[in-house]
Amino acid sequence: MKTLLSVAALMLLIVMTRPVVLAQTDDDDDDQDQAVLAKVLSTAKVTLEAGLAATSAEGRPISGKFEMEKGKPQLSVYTEKSGKFYEVVVDHVTGKVVKSEPITEAEDLAAAKGQSEVMSKAKLSLGAAVGKAVAANGGFRALSVFPEAKDGHPVATVKVVKGQDWKMVSESLE
User: Fold this and answer.
1) Cα–Cα distance between 29 and 49 in angstroms, integer?
2) Longest dimension (CA), the chain
3) What band does 35 get if pLDDT is binned at 50, 70 and 90?
4) Which domain holds residue 166?
5) Is residue 20 part of a domain?
6) For residue range 55-70, what is the model confidence (pLDDT) as tens digits?
7) Would you call 146 helix, strand, or coil by DSSP?
8) Cross-strand partners of 130
9) Model confidence at 2, in pLDDT bands (50, 70, 90)?
């Protein structure tokens, strides 16, 4: 009987604490929009790879993501050109650049500088890394890509989605 009560208490503890543990480890700002973004991505004619390529005239892409901005979907790409940083918005349906503006907000600028630093050590473009991640995960589409240094090596972290299934994929940029 004691064993049964102990097992029941343990199961109750697991059930009660699981949502808290998940909430503490979930640090993606876009999570509340995941269902909406999954729907947008499933109907978007433009891939993240194509969006990154479309911004090349605006500078070297250093990160990119589909996101919800003021309730509307957009493909946002940070670029670097001649030491200056820009946010370039690509229409997710047509693939055309619709806006390019300098990054001036301190937090965004710090993120862009860090991304540029990692990309300065990369031999592979973000577009190529996204292409590899998508090819290795059949049926998935890329939602975002961010460069980061892991153990001193440049790596692209690619978030991919298929329906309501999401996962993070790391691709070397060397």
Assistant:
1) 22
2) 72
3) confident
4) 31-172
5) no
6) 999 999 999 999 988 8
7) strand
8) none
9) very low
Token pair for residue 99? 């806006």
pLDDT band at 29 (very low <50, low <70, confident <90, very high): very low
Is 138 part of any domain? yes
- Nearest one of 173, 171, 161 to 31, comparing CA atoms: 161
Residue that the structure tokens 């999401």 belong to? 166
- Residue bearing tokens 């070297």: 60
Q: Express each pLDDT in 95-128 by its tens digit.
A: 999 999 999 999 999 999 999 999 999 999 999 9
Domain-embedded: residue 135:
yes
Which H or E run includes 11?
helix 2-25
Residue 36 is assigned to a structural domain of this protein? yes
151, two tokens: 């153990």
For the chain, how many structural domains are there in total?
A: 1
Q: How crowded is the C-beta side of 104, counted as CA atoms within 13 Å?
A: 3
Give me the residues paired with residue 124 across strands.
none
| Residues 157, 136 contacting (CB under 8 angstroms) | no
